Amino acid sequence: MTSSPNDSRLLRNAFGRFATGVAVATAIDPDGQPIGLTINSFSAVSLNPPLVLWCLDNTSHNLEAFRRASHHAISILATGQADVSTRFATWPVDRFVGLPWRPGAGGAPLLEGCCASFEVANEAAHLAGDHTIFVGRVEEFSETAGLAPLIFHSGQYRRLSED
Question: Which of 3.50.30.30, 3.40.50.2300, 1.10.1200.10, 2.30.110.10 would CATH assign to domain 21-145?
């Protein structure tokens, strides 16, 4: 079945057929407060230099804070962290209350219990349609071997199969 890209609901459903990992992007806002949100648009760009990207909706109340932050962190969520994903996708809530984290580069919060974490210096922000693409240079990273990633596909959290 072919549909017009002008039907945003059908287009969103078709985009959802691509399975993605789930991550949380975090930073420190100009007032020194931690901010963060759930993303599934994370991608590696380059190994030399080490660059990553992620996207943020231009209507996000966090857009300007992420633009102004010197650093941000990307925490790749593990299978058991669907509640963390939901917490950072829900508004309004104080997303960091009772959640263990530690400051990374530039103070950007690194969440505990994740598959991998990246401490990233902001390199560029590019306007692209209704989103902004953030490109950052990885300064530090860590991974926890043995943790399976949280996956999102067709509107639901999924697990990898060992088939």
Answer: 2.30.110.10
